[in-house]
Amino acid sequence: MMNGEAVWTIPSPLQSIHHPLLERYRVNLSIKREDLIHHTISGNKWRKLKYNLIHARKRGVNLLITFGGAFSNHIYSTAAACKYFNLPLLIYLRGDHIDTHNPTLNFVQAHGAKIRLLSREEYRLKDSDRFLKEIKNEFPNALIVPEGGSNSLAIEGLKELGQELTVQMERSYDFLLVSAGTGCTAAGIIQSVPNEMRIEVYSALKGNFLIKDIQSYLSKEFNNWSLIQDFHFGGYAKTNESLINFINEFKRSTSICLDPIYTAKAMYGFFDRLQKGSYPKGSNVVFVHTGGLQGIKGYNYLNPHFQIVD
Ligand SMILES: *Cc1c(COP(=O)(O)O)cnc(C)c1O
User: Fold this and answer.
1) I need a labelling partner for 37 at 20 to 30 A (CA). Which of 12, 30, 101, 289 fits?
2) What is the distance in A from the centroid of ligand 1 to the CA of 180?
3) pLDDT of the residue at 310
4) Rounded to the nearest whole angstrom, what is the distance from the C-alpha of residue 3 to the centroid of ligand 1?
5) Ligand 1 atom 14, closest CA
6) Per residue in 91-138, pLDDT tens?
7) For ligand 1, what atom is nearest to the CA of residue 73?
8) Which residue segments constitute the domains of the chain, with CATH numbers given?
């Protein structure tokens, strides 16, 4: 690394994991380390942004506009990417004030992003025609990227994740596991890996709307996937002690960090299902580490008495 210059790691590594429980149940686990793509533009958020940024450049866009919560991985990665590629960014933030101690907001502001606040009610209407028209009137030359970075251009980048993995695989995998928020990442993967693989999509949210949402991102019917809904831990961004203990134990035994919002819930779910016999002996499993590790700082900031070790 020169002068702290950022290093890109694409293809992201496919790493074989050792853990006593994997040995006991004779299951092979590899992790697709999307968290290592870039230290700030990490994981699936880079995959989603890539073709949006290309589109912005081709169209001569002079501003990117997006939406998110105050601790969101999407606003963090988008701010880092826009700074890196020199594109001004405006974030419509859900909330009624800017907490000057919030590590995510400090990061995005330090990277030049401008913030406008939306109340909860306004935020709910952010995708309405009326609001989008208002934005377009004010900023005719902007590209508007939805919350989470999920749109059809994002799917194109996520298909590259699946293609890259397919090239890297030195053996066939029986199962692929991935976490889901909007389901866009899962949908890109479903369409781009060998159809024999069983894809388990671990929902980070409560409610089964994700089945429909994922289908809406697919170009045709696919029957290689299922949604697992037992590991949301009470809902989006909800956590408990056993999840945090799991993150810290996983870090101790594998040296790999998991974020508390997405990847930890999916990995916890995998180990839970492993111990219930969901994977036959000799199964080859690949877990997509979608990144999001900036969220650990936010968690630790909000929970000073129960820390994630990173
Ligand atoms: C945003 C995010 C997800 C969810 O991706 P979707 O495409 O919205 O399903 C999963 N993992 C991490 C780490 C994320 O930041």
Assistant:
1) 101
2) 6
3) 85
4) 30
5) 292
6) 999 999 999 999 999 999 999 999 999 999 999 999 999 999 999 999
7) 15
8) 14-42+155-302 (3.40.50.1100), 43-149 (3.40.50.1100)
